[in-house]
Amino acid sequence: MMRETLFFIAFLFTCLCYGQEIKNERLYDCILSSRDGHGGEYAWKMRRAGEVHSKAEDVSTPKVSTDDWMPAIVPGTVLNSLVHNKIYPEPYYGLNNKLESNLIPDIYHVGRDFYTYWFRTEFETPTAHFKNKKTWLQVDGINYRAEIWLNGNMVGNIAGMFYQDHIDISDYIYLDKKNILAVKVYPVDVPGTIKSKGKKTIGALNDEFQNGGNGEIGKNVTQLMTVGWDFTYLDGIRDRNTGIWKDISIYTTGNVSLRHPFVKSDLSKPDYNVSRQTISVEVINPNNNWTIQDVTIVGEIKDENVRFEKQVQLARGERKEISFSPEEYPQLVLKNPRLWWPINKGKQELYNLSLKILDKDKNLIDSISTRFGIREITSNTDTPDKSRTFYINGKPIFIRGTNWLPENMLRNSEERTYAQLRYTAQAGINLIRFWGGGITESDYFFQLCDELGIMVWTEFWMTGDTKHPVDESIYYNNVTSTVKRIRNHPSLAYYVSSNESTEMSYTEALIQNLDGTRGYQMQSECCGVHDGSPYKQVNIMCHYENTASDRGSRIDGFNPEYGAPCLPTVECLREMMDEKDLWPINKEVWDYSDGNGFHLMTGMYRDMVNEYGISKSIDEFAEKGQFVGAFNYKSIWEVWNYNKLNQGDRYCSGFLFWYHNPPIRQVCSRMWDWSLEPTAALYAAQNACEPLHPQFDFLRNTVSVVNDYYRSFTNYKVLADVYDLNGKKVFSKEMTVNLPEDGVAKDLFTIDFPPTITSVHFIKLRLLDEKGTEVGNNFYWRSNSHYEGRKTLTGPTTSGFQDLSKLKQTKLEISYREHKEEECYLIDIEVKNTSRTIAFFTQLQLLDENDKPIRPSFYSDNFFSLLPGERKAIRIETNAQKLAANSKLILKGWNVKKEIYNLRHH
After folding, report:
1. Checking DSSP bridges between strand 702-707 and strand 744-750, what pairing results, if any?
2. pTM for the structure as a whole
């Protein structure tokens, strides 16, 4: 019964999530992505501006040849393309990026002109489609300033990394012949540089650099982390991500165009059974003639039989915001609306809105569409400790959140976005924070968050480590452009001006005017959100004791940053440095990718790995490193589970894991490596955040059950079994339990460990529903080490695991079925432990013909342990195009004989 349930859940997740169609607001005639790097249809080339000795007017004409220009990656950055062309080495390898290595010039030392580049491509506009239409060039994002030239004419200029522009190029295109587009891209005005902290240290090494460098980069409206931070390279990215980092597209309209549709939903209280929609859209008349444009705007909420329209007049060059209110249009009042809910709380219901402009003769001039969700997300500080608590559709929601970091060189793709968000949903996370020194992610990112039920807290590119923007107009233009782009998404939950800083003076009023449907606070550590920590590796017992930070109790109220690292798998480690630096551990190389040793990967983390026995190779060390990482993640999520809302020892409204996703290849990885290879931490988090979850407290020795659903459950049964190192059951207990709605059944009973138990032993928890079906489970390993305090390396989670090496070797039985569903390749697997020994930390791997992991691949579970006689169903899914003729499935584990299975279905 349990096996069938697991397969059903895996199949449902696949059908809902894999291969999502990217939904744009309109149809584009072309998206000018490059062949290089993206497999697009357009050949982009680039050259340093100082080496182009022609007039700017001529660069976008045949007068300037690009025969001696190099291929460019667009979207991308200057440094992306220079690395692609092997001008400079891969920055994410060894010490290649390190400032003192002098392998990649830093903009601060060589000057802004060094990274000022021309980018150029060609496209066609056939008469049959483009004649007598308005043609628009949509520029989604350039860092930092740009001149845009087309066929010898300057058609636009842009400032600020997050500004989206729509440029009317109708008068400048050539019909039925090639058009030449040239973009001159300038770096940030003030690139900033490193700053020594003197005697104050932040990590394992003598402190060389400071987060945010000398703070000067904050004068720009850009990705501040490129100057250097302790969660990435402390000395930054050499070009500060200069480039065309988002798409450039072309579309056509009639004489009037639509832009920025927005739906505001006002839900009735307290039943939330009536929703009043106010819909607005911008209408633009770009024409230079004096003819008044008489048009009709027609809207429709599809599948709801809701239509509305309004006549509009626009003069030359006029732009209007047209609104449709429920007072004017009663059909915009929806009874019993389908509500959007976050993950585990309900369905992610979405509505489709289309808007059209018709001329006097009812001919279509332009059309645009958007999706929206009906929900209410609010928050307040009416709590016992004045901490901020969030509510969804009137119900309190405990925030199991995380801090999102962008790829540090903006080497983004839809595949990367999809994989990371799918992993996020798999982990059970319900909110992502865009940290203020990063970026605002793509429309596709928000689309997936809408579909997966992941809320988003977005910050507007300022931090307390750097100065504020000096050109206020650039900042406010970028905020306006961004809010208009993202405000329709139901996943967008909260606006925050900055990370640990203050706001620009008019930001709140501007956002309220543009939106007004979400909450806002000035910065990330105010208004009921306290300061963060811990960040580094600590004794895992500290999480249970709430002493993980030197700042005192951190498991209380709302913590915006609380986390720990996980070592990547050995395959990933081998991709980030030479073998000689991997083993024995080269501290300089390891620490460089650990933010100058910030997370203590060559210090306490290594010491904790050694508590499983001194390793003889990097393979052995990396395998044991997964044990520590998994324990880090499970302990943190479960301690917060125990204290959710008013359930635990203190009031806890939520926390945001610091941090979520690796921005570079690094030894201090997270639930997955930069290469999109999951670590054991992903599956530990997935287990800890399952909606019905039994869990063990290593300080109290008690068993509790967590319920994340908005409903209660009665007559459930929780079972606890303890096994010694020989697989013998030495303790067993069960209890009937009633689970409160969205609550915790705390400290149901204590596990009594026999005094003669082996030095290492195992705990298996199971939760059964009223029919006896397993709905949640858990597995731990524990030592007899006595915890002697947070400054020690002691305790049953942390030390004394050397005897794990005495586990007898075992062999598992496996059966599997391969099949395809459209572009998906799937393997349904059943693994059974037929031995009398626990199979510890079993891993499945999908490898290519070169024995490298096929990425991204999605495992319904991994790094699992099986009791004697236990079986487990697993589904693996990947893109069928990634499979080669000699792909294989690997089964291995700590004490499991390695097996190789050649795959047949290609």
Report:
1. antiparallel
2. 0.96
